[in-house]
Structure formats: structure tokens, C-alpha cells
Write a structure and sequence with these properties.
By secondary structure, the protein is an alpha+beta fold. It contains 14 helices and 15 strands.
Length: 398
């Protein structure tokens, strides 16, 4: 998120921001941040996170005494006395949005260094972690997830089936909520109900069609990684093209103990790979992070895009990789426990060789890296993926 373009409009509503700030003095300011986004072309999700960070959710002395959510003009020598006074939180949000937009996010602006938190951090704050702290808050603010046209179509078909069986009340209300803004959770709820009432075949037809369209896009971006170990043994895993210079993301355990690394492309061509770095010593949620970067000297046929938003509980996903050395398979499942920042549980099939590959949402964005699978008597479909949020933190470590 440090390099996220703050000119990109957030897919957000005032209600989402109000729910996020509920129980704090910033509650009911959501409409002001959404209005600032429209008026000043500044991402409302970032701007709300900025205000939360600077004002401690509107509870700081400056926010309470002067309606100043950003510590605007609060100088270190006498912050409360020097801070600018605003008529209201609304006035403050509008004024500071205009100021930041003109001076920090516009090329040629007085302190412009790129319209990102990393760029703003150069001149806006002396704390080198200021941008990262706001980025961490941004990640916690949910966004509206738009439905694909096929999801809307399938949702309406599912709703018709459910309504005919009396399994939903007020179907017109449900149908309206598929509109503006589109409600992703509603679609998935209906599909689950449909599947639970002997309509799984109908759902599977639609999902099979989606996977057929998605796989050709993801396939060129996912590679097989061959490792010859220093002891002469061999292993294989998977990886995904991350950057246009040939950088590939994989797991640390895929590269550990390597003597040589070779990447096999989707068309069967093989290229030697150079080890760049791994996540040795990096911890998240009390456990070690398992990621690595390698590189090949070719232009990738495709690169993956990291998801900017946390997946929802029950969201559908696909895993692409080379399990047991078999080239580029695709499996389908759902995401669980997305509130765990480090690892998500997925029930899509993950097997040895999938490690380091990609777990994608139905937009083709990387939501995690298949890393671990629990095995044993009575254990089924228990795979873990390292989250995209941890991938971003790993990349930012340089």
C-alpha cells in the first residue's frame, strides 16, 4: 500500500467508513471523506486512515479542541497552540483534502514526490514509518467488491430458484441489493443456499465457465521451479512472475539448500534462475514468513497483480501451480479466516509442488501464496496460503 496511487478512487461508501469508526468521535464523518474524494480526487480510504492515525480516532486534544483531525499546522514546539482551528470536522476534512491534493499529490506541487504514501512520507512526516502506519490502517478498511456481470446474472437466477422454493423472504429487496452498490456477500450467500438445496449443478456450470476463461490469463504468469540441492537431490515447486524484469515470487522452502534453480515456463521452455533473497528472520503473527524471490533473464509473458483488498470469509478462489511436478493445474475453493494477517485457510486442493505458486480471486489477482498443507488421519482440505498483505511487507523490506 505504500506505493498505492492515492489518486485512485476507493470503492467505498459513507456507511462503510462510519461502521469502521463506530464508537469513536469520528463516527458519522464517512460522508465527508466520500465527498472529499469526489471533490478533490483523493482516495477516501487513505484519507480516513490518515485522519485516524493523526487524531487517534478523533480523540486527540487537537481534534477535540480545534476540530483538527490531521494535526494541521501543529508544530512540535507548541502543537496545541499552533494547530489550526476548524469550524467542524467536515470543514477540516474538506480543507486538508484540498491542501494535500494540491501540494503533495499533484506533479509540480510544492512537496510532490509521487502520489503515494511513500512519496508523501518524504516531506510530510519525520517518522520514517508514518506512511506504513497509515497503509496498515488502510488495509483494515473494507471496500465494496464489485460483481462481474456473470455474477449478477447467476445471482438473479439463483434468487429466482430460491424464491420459487420459498427459501428467501422479500426477493425484490435482495435483487435491488445486487445493484448499487453491488453486494458481493449477497451473491455468495445466495449461491451457498442454492448449492445447499440441490442446485449445485447449476452453480458448477457457471463456475466451470469462469475457470475456463480465467486459466489462460493466469497460466503464463505461473511457473514451475526446479531445484537441484547441494546434496545432489532434486525438488520442485511453483512461482509467479511478479515484475516485468523477470522477478518471480515463490516460497523460501522451495529455494532453501539450492545449488541451481531452473524455471519451466507454461510452454515448456526452461531458463536458469538466480536467487535474489528470502524472508529469513521475518516474523508475522508469531511465526516465520516463508517467501523468496528469484529471477530469470527474460521478459515475462505475463505478470500477476497483487490484490489490494483483504478477501472475504467464504470468497471463492483458485490455486494454480505444479503439484507433484505436474504442469500447471488449477483447483477451486473458498477462503476462510481472512482476519489472520499472515495465513489464510483455503479448501482448494494444495499438494507438494503447489508451494510458491498462486492463489487468486476470480478477478485474477493474487490473494496469497500456497505455502503449507496439513496432512493426517481425519484432516481434509486444510491448506494455508501466505497472504498478499504479508507478501507486500516482504517486498517492502527490500
Amino acid at each position: 500500500m505504500l506505493d498505492y496511487n492515492l489518486r485512485t478512487p476507493a470503492r467505498i461508501t459513507a456507511q462503510i467508513l462510519d461502521d469502521f469508526c463506530k464508537g469513536t468521535p469520528m463516527y458519522a464523518t464517512g460522508a465527508f471523506f466520500v465527498a472529499a474524494q469526489k471533490k478533490h480526487n483523493i482516495n477516501a480510504r487513505y484519507f480516513c486512515a490518515h485522519a485516524i492515525h493523526e487524531s487517534n480516532w478523533g480523540k486527540s486534544a487537537i481534534a477535540q479542541a480545534k476540530n483538527n483531525l490531521f494535526g494541521f499546522q501543529a508544530y512540535d514546539s507548541s502543537p496545541l497552540a499552533s494547530a489550526r482551528t476548524f469550524d467542524s470536522f467536515e470543514h477540516c476534512i474538506d480543507f486538508v483534502a484540498d491542501y494535500i491534493s494540491r501540494h503533495y499529490l499533484t506533479p509540480g506541487g510544492r512537496w510532490y514526490n509521487g502520489a503515494t504514501l511513500r512519496g508523501m512520507n518524504v516531506h510530510y512526516a519525520t517518522d520514517p514509518l508514518w506512511g506504513q502506519k497509515i497503509a496498515n490502517l488502510m488495509m483494515k478498511i473494507p471496500e465494496v467488491k464489485n460483481l462481474h456481470p456473470w455474477q449478477t446474472k447467476m445471482g438473479e437466477a439463483a434468487l429466482g430458484e430460491l424464491a420459487s422454493k420459498g427459501l428467501v423472504a422479500n426477493p425484490e429487496d435482495w435483487k435491488n441489493q445486487l445493484g448499487d452498490p453491488p453486494q458481493n456477500w449477497l451473491f455468495f450467500t445466495m449461491m451457498q443456499r442454492l448449492a445447499n438445496h440441490a442446485k449445485a449443478d447449476t452453480a458448477n456450470i457457471f463456475y466451470a465457465d469462469t475457470l475456463k476463461k480465467l486459466f489462460p490469463t493466469l497460466n503464463p504468469a505461473v511457473v514451475k521451479v526446479h531445484k537441484v540441492r547441494t546434496d545432489g537431490g532434486t525438488n520442485s515447486g511453483s512461482g509467479t512472475f511478479l515484475l516485468p524484469d523477470g522477478t518471480i515470487l515463490t516460497n523460501q522452502h522451495v529455494t532453501d539448500g539450492h545449488k541451481t534453480l531452473t524455471v519451466e515456463m507454461h510452454d515448456g521452455k526452461k531458463y536458469p534462475a538466480t536467487f535474489i533473497r528470502d524472508s529469513a528472520g521475518m516474523m508475522a503473527e508469531g511465526s516465520s514468513v516463508d517467501l523468496a524471490l528469484i529471477k530469470v533473464a527474460i521478459k515475462p509473458p505475463a505478470i500477476i497483480q497483487l490484490a489490494n483488498i483483504q478477501p472475504e470469509h467464504g470468497q471463492f478462489c483458485v490455486v494454480v501451480g505444479s503439484p507433484l511436478g505436474r504442469p500447471r493445474t488449477i483447483t477451486f475453493g473458498i477462503v476462510s479466516n481472512p482476519d489472520d494477517r499472515h495465513m489464510y485457510h483455503v479448501d482448494a486442493a494444495i499438494n507438494p509442488g503447489n508451494s510458491g505458486g498462486g492463489c487468486f480471486d476470480l478477478d485474477g489477482r493474487l490473494i496469497g501464496v500456497p505455502t503449507l498443507k496439513f496432512v493426517g488421519s481425519g484432516i481434509d482440505s486444510m491448506g494455508l496460503i501466505t497472504s498478499a498483505e504479508i507478501v507486500k511487507l516482504f517486498l517492502e523490506r527490500g
